[in-house]
Write a structure and sequence with these properties.
Structural class: mainly beta
Radius of gyration: 24 Å
Number of helices: 2
Largest sheet: 22 strands, antiparallel, barrel
Distance between the termini: 30 Å
């Protein structure tokens, strides 16, 4: 799948990514910021939060009990989520992951509280070792009991079925057949209700075909009227060379059909990895990208990335389409990234690099597509003062299209205590951040964060994360807290 040249929006975990226009940012890609938040919860609201929490717990209690019952006494021999390994004994196997997440967000005046439950499971050896059932489900409650205006198109806390399909392996040698709701992580990445047949003919060749009803959680108009068909062929002429061709057709009534073609090359050498892809949309060149990662020796690593949007994107039938009324046409651009790192022993490294976007000469800058140049240098220390302690610092210089220059600093302190505890504390600066919900572009944003992960045992861990963002908007500051409990069974 081609790399995302911009901001990533939350989509079903494990279901790839939804890519928005790239914005200059430091410390990773984020879609957070000013939203028209819900009003504060009074005493009655606090009571509703308790009721909502109990309701969600009642939904998931049978699943928890079922997981413990099936896994009692199995210990570490349970299959990991997503494993292709089969139980040679032919015994029924149930494995997976159960995760509960609380998410709270607020600004100076408003707030929003949600509770979400994720279940990812594999049922293997159903009646026969060749048959299995896979699922990825979510239950959710809006603890404020009002419109979840923090959430994309008000669907974010509703119950969802991301994956639920039966898989039959080996009916034909080296083949797999799936029926149900599933995700194709390829050309554009699509979720659909339908069928899929995959086969590895030999070590040199593999192929698959699929088709069904397109599924989206973001655009109501696409829920029932869009069909998807596709195919992929992968050739491996050498052990370190992979060539792939993909075709995807989205039939969207009444907006029209979209045809995608994608060609990619992946080459792995002893010290160098290379990847490139070229895609075509409705008979016209859509985009091109290339990436090189080189272990140059003597502690040097070099990474370069290039992306070019060759065709102005307008109304499409895929997940980019919901943003067309907001962004308007997504104009053509070039994006470059380069960084080099030098390791001095095992505990110290220095990096420097450049990232920038240039619009094509016929393109015009908009709030969703801006020109920028970012120059940075960073240093990292690990296990130098104490075992498990890491320090990093980054200095940035930003230059925007109006020749405005900004200098910023970011850093992080992290600590790992054996296999029991991971903790981090840091800050970073973003020249641009875009709030998809409120359709607001934020400029000059400083983010502070703290995170903690504690492992009770190899199967159960607790994660905490808090963020604060400051900018010049009247709603600033903004806060976000997430608490997540995860159990692997």
């Amino acid at each position: 799948m081609p790399p995302c040249p911009g901001v990533r929006i939350e989509v079903p975990p494990g279901a790839g990514q939804l890519c928005l226009p790239a914005f200059a940012h430091g410390g990773g890609s984020h879609v957070t910021g000013p939203r028209a938040l819900l009003r504060g919860v009074g005493r009655n609201g606090q009571g509703k939060q308790i009721v909502k929490s109990v309701t969600l717990f009642r939904k998931i209690l049978p699943v928890i009990g079922f997981a413990f019952l099936l896994n009692s006494g199995r210990g570490q021999d349970s299959l990991a989520v997503g494993s292709k390994q089969a139980d040679d004994s032919g015994n029924f196997r149930f494995s997976g992951r159960l995760s509960t997440r609380y998410r709270g967000q607020w600004n100076r005046d408003d707030r929003d509280h949600d509770l979400l439950q994720y279940l990812n499971f594999d049922l293997r050896n159903l009646f026969t070792p060749k048959l299995s059932l896979h699922g990825f489900l979510r239950g959710g409650e809006d603890l404020d009991d009002t419109d979840p205006i923090f959430d994309w198109t008000n669907y974010d806390v509703q119950d969802r079925v991301y994956d639920l399909y039966l898989e039959v392996e080996g009916l034909i040698p080296k083949s797999s057949f799936r029926v149900g709701r599933q995700y194709y992580d390829g050309l554009e990445g699509v979720q659909f209700d339908g069928v899929r047949f995959m086969r590895d003919e030999t070590r040199w060749l593999g192929w698959q075909v699929f088709g069904g009803r397109y599924v989206t959680f973001y655009d109501k108009d696409l829920r029932h009227d869009t069909e998807v068909t596709g195919a992929q062929v992968t050739a491996r002429p050498f052990r370190t060379t992979s060539l792939s061709a993909e075709y995807l057709r989205l039939m969207d009534f009444p907006a029209g059909d979209d045809d995608y073609l994608n060609f990619s090359l992946r080459q792995q050498l002893k010290s160098l990895n290379f990847f490139s892809q070229y895609s075509v949309l409705n008979g016209e060149a859509k985009d091109f990208s290339a990436k090189v990662y080189w272990l140059a020796g003597s502690g040097w690593t070099i990474s370069t990335r290039y992306f070019r949007l060759l065709h102005t994107l307008e109304e499409l039938s895929n997940e980019f389409d919901p943003y067309f009324p907001i962004f308007g046409p997504y104009m053509q651009f070039h994006q470059y990234d380069f960084d080099v790192t030098k390791f001095f022993g095992e505990h110290f490294s220095v990096s420097a690099g450049y990232g920038g976007r240039q619009l094509s000469h016929e393109s015009e800058e908009s709030i969703a597509n801006r020109e920028f140049n970012r120059y940075f240098t960073s240093v990292s220390l690990s296990d130098l003062f104490a075992t498990g302690l890491g320090l990093s610092a980054t200095f940035d210089r930003w230059v925007t299209s109006d020749d405005n220059e900004t200098y910023s600093f970011g850093g992080e302190i992290n600590y790992r205590l054996k296999k029991k505890l991971d903790a981090s504390l840091g800050t970073y600066y973003s020249e641009y951040k875009y709030d998809v919900d409120a359709v607001i572009e934020r400029i000059d944003v400083r983010t502070y964060y703290a995170a903690l992960k504690y492992y009770f045992n190899p199967k159960l861990h607790l994660s905490l994360r808090g963020e604060r963002e400051d900018d010049d908007s009247p709603e600033s500051p903004y806060g976000k807290v997430e608490v997540r409990m995860t159990y692997n069974f």
